Amino acid sequence: MVSAGSGVLTRALALRPVILWTGQSMTTLMPLRYQAKYWWLRARILTDINGFGLSLGNFRERINDGGVEVALDQACGRANFEKVAHLRLTIVIRPGPGNDVSFDPVINTAPGLRLSPRWLADLRGRAYARSRDGRDAG
Question: What superkingdom does the record give (predicted)?
Answer without folding.
Answer: Bacteria
